[in-house]
């Protein structure tokens, strides 16, 4: 061992000596090369300076040549001018000759300077090539020195590692054996965890497939609902067009009535005119009857529209319930995926715990399958109802179009006859035409007399009259709701201007242009939307602060389920029990007192009630905090309640 160490030491000393010698030689060679490089660099700098001086001299000569050329041109022009006056001016010719001689000398100097510049450039190029060769030689020498240094270091490291290699080899052998045993154990645990992971992966894949199917069905239902809404909007627009047509027909009827009155005042002047008036009266009666029939058909169409809107609202409620259930399934799927990630990251845990967790997840999967089946049946029922509502809307629309076409054709023919007869009467009696024109002018200049409170009340004895009256009441109710919403949001509309806008909108005499109407209506909608959003935001913050101090069982969006009293046990499916539901606003206004009724627990119950019963258990009590829009469709909100009103529901059960 000592001999090996001595040999190693001697080899190291010889290597050090040889490395020092090589290093010294290399340094000397580098010093010589650097000296040559410095000398060449100095010579090159001198040549560059001389080249710059020559370039400056050439530029100066070029300036002189330009000046002499300019002088030559001036003298030539001068000579040309003076030669016309006198041909014996020797002084000018001598000056011109001197200038030309100077110009020739300057050109010779430029040629010599150019030759000197070319020579200098050639010498500079030679020096540059020599400099580049020296630089390349220097780089080669540096690389050789670097290689020798690295070789010396490698030899030293190999000599040092030779003595330590035996000791490290034994330690490494022991570490390899320990790592092999650990690797075998890890492989065993990994195989068990991989089996658990594959089971979970299959479960999650099945759930994702069912969820994708449910989402496709939900998308189809949404598209069907959108088509129903489009059909409803189309029907509404056509009803509005019919109303406008009726108003125009009424205006024409009023004009004919005025003409009939004027004709009646001068009836004694002509027997022929009396006969024509009688014919006009009969035709006016026919038109009035047609208008009455058209109004009744319009009222029937409005009733069908109201029924379709109610059916659409019911479908919207079912769709919202399906959407909430879909959200719950997504949350459960996310929880399962998180559980899988946790199992993947904790592969060192015991296999029994993983197997038990897999059993629990399989049970949860079975429950989810049941919920998916129930939701599928509910969705099919909702789709069937939507199809029936769409068919009803289509039938109503076809009936309305047929009735409108018949009424328009009949009224157009009758009006054409009346207008022809009126033209004949007007042409036959010039005096009567003058009187009618005077009366029409007087009526146009007269002020409109408003209806007095003592006007004759409407006749509501026929179903058609009652339906028309109900349509007006419905429009007034919509206007009342709009005014109540604006007032609650802090708006104070001018009633006189509001009623004037309603009147002008009905008669078609709008006082603003389309651009102003669009701009101002968008401004009103934006302002009210901002205020309503602020109400929602403050309501959410209030509910979060209120439920933070209580035992929150569940939160779904803006719906909070809080425990009042814990039940004795979970409620079973189709179990009979007594349920009480109390409805009130968060401010204390009671809308429905909780009367106990007998019922059966089922997943088909409304979502808030079903969730409260499931979370509270038998004999429990749960409070539900939410917005009114979470419970009521937009058109069914009770009076004095708005979509952003905070509500409180208390659900209690007893066996």
Keyword list:
Chitinase A, domain 3, flat, 655 residues, 7 strands, single chain
What does this structure look like?
- Residues 1-19 have a biased composition (Basic and acidic residues).
- Residues 232-297 form a coiled coil.
- The chain has 655 residues and is of the alpha+beta class.
- Helix content is 78%, strand content 7%.
- Strands 1, 2, 3, 4, 5, 6 and 7 form a 7-stranded antiparallel β-sheet that branches.
- Helix 3 packs across helix 6 (463-488).
- It starts with a helix and ends with a strand.
Radius of gyration: 53 Å
Task: Indicate the proportion of strand residues.
Answer: 5-15%
- The first-level CATH class of one domain is given as Mainly Alpha
Tell me what the CATH architecture of one domain is.
Orthogonal Bundle
| Number of helical elements | 9
N-to-C SSE string, H for helix and E for strand: HHHHHHHHEEEEEHEE
Care to count the β-strands? 7
Q: Characterize the main sheet.
A: 7 strands, antiparallel
Give the terminus-to-terminus CA distance: 95 Å
Helical content class: over 70%
Mean pLDDT: 71
User: In CATH terms, what is the fold-level topology of one domain?
Assistant: Helix Hairpins
Inertia-based shape: flat
Oligomer: single chain
Structural class: alpha+beta
- Poorly predicted regions are 442-454
Keywords: Coiled coil
InterPro entries: PPIase_FKBP_N_sf
Short description:
With 655 residues, the protein is α+β, with helices and mostly antiparallel strands. 78% of the residues lie in helices and 7% in strands.
């Amino acid at each position: 061992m000592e001999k090996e160490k001595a040999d190693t030491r001697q080899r190291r000393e010889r290597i050090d000596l040889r490395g020092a010698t090589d290093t010294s030689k290399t340094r000397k060679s580098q010093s010589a090369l650097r000296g040559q490089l410095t000398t060449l660099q100095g010579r090159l700098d001198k040549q560059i300076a001389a080249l710059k001086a020559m370039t400056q001299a050439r530029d100066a000569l070029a300036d002189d040549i330009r000046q002499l050329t300019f002088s030559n041109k001036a003298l030539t022009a001068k000579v040309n001018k003076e030669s016309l006056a006198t041909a014996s001016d020797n002084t000018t010719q001598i000056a011109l000759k001197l200038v030309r001689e100077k110009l020739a000398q300057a050109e010779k100097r430029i040629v010599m300077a150019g030759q000197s510049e070319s020579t200098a450039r050639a010498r500079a190029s030679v020096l540059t090539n020599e400099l580049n060769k020296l630089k390349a030689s220097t780089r080669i020498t540096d690389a050789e020195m670097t290689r020798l240094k690295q070789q010396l270091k490698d030899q030293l490291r190999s000599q040092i590692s030779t003595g330590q290699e035996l000791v490290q080899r034994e330690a490494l052998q022991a570490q390899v054996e320990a790592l092999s045993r650990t690797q075998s154990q890890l492989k065993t645990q990994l195989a068990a965890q991989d089996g658990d992971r594959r089971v979970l992966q299959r479960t999650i894949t099945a759930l994702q497939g069912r969820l994708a199917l449910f989402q496709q069905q939900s998308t189809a239902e949404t598209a069907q609902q959108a088509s129903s809404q489009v059909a409803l909007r189309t029907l509404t627009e056509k009803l509005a067009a019919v109303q406008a047509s009726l108003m125009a027909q009424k205006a024409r009827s009023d004009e004919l009535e005025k003409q009939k009155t004027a004709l009646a005042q001068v009836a004694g002047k002509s027997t022929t005119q009396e006969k024509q008036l009688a014919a006009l009266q009969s035709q006016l009666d026919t038109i009035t009857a047609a208008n009455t029939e058209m109004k009744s058909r319009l009222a029937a169409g409005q009733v069908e529209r109201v029924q379709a809107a109610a059916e659409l609202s019911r479908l919207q409620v079912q769709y919202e319930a399906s959407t909430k259930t879909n959200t719950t399934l997504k949350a459960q799927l996310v929880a399962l995926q998180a559980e899988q990630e946790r199992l993947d990251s904790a592969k060192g845990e015991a296999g029994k715990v993983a197997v038990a967790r897999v059993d629990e997840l399989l049970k949860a999967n079975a429950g989810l399958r049941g919920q998916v089946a129930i939701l599928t049946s509910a969705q099919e029922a909702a789709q069937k109802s939507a199809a029936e509502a769409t068919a009803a809307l289509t039938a109503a629309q076809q009936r309305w179009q047929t009735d409108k076409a018949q009424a328009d054709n009949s009224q157009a023919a009758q009006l054409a006859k009346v207008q022809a007869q009126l033209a004949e009467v007007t042409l036959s009696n010039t005096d009567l035409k003058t009187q009618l024109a005077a009366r029409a002018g007087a009526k146009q200049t007269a002020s409109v007399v408003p209806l007095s409170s003592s006007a004759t009340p409407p006749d509501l004895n026929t179903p058609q009259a009652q339906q028309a009256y109900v349509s007006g009441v419905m429009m007034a109710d919509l206007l009342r709701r709009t005014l109540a919403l604006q007032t609650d949001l802090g708006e104070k509309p001018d009633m006189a201007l509001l009623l004037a806008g309603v009147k002008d909108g009905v008669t078609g005499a709008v006082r603003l242009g389309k651009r102003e109407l669009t701009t101002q209506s968008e401004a009103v909608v934006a302002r009210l939307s901002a205020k309503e959003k602020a109400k929602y935001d403050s309501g959410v913050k209030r509910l979060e602060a209120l439920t933070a101090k209580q035992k929150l069982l569940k939160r779904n969006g803006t719906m909070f389920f809080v425990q009042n009293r814990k039940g004795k046990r979970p409620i079973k499916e189709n179990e009979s029990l007594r349920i009480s539901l109390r409805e009130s606003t968060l401010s204390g206004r009671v809308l429905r007192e909780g009367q106990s009724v007998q019922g059966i627990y089922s997943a088909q119950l409304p979502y808030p009630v079903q969730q409260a019963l499931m979370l509270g258990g038998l004999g429990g009590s749960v409070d539900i905090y939410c917005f009114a829009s979470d419970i009521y469709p937009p058109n069914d909100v009770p009076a004095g309640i708005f979509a952003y009103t905070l509500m409180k529901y208390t659900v209690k059960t007893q066996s």
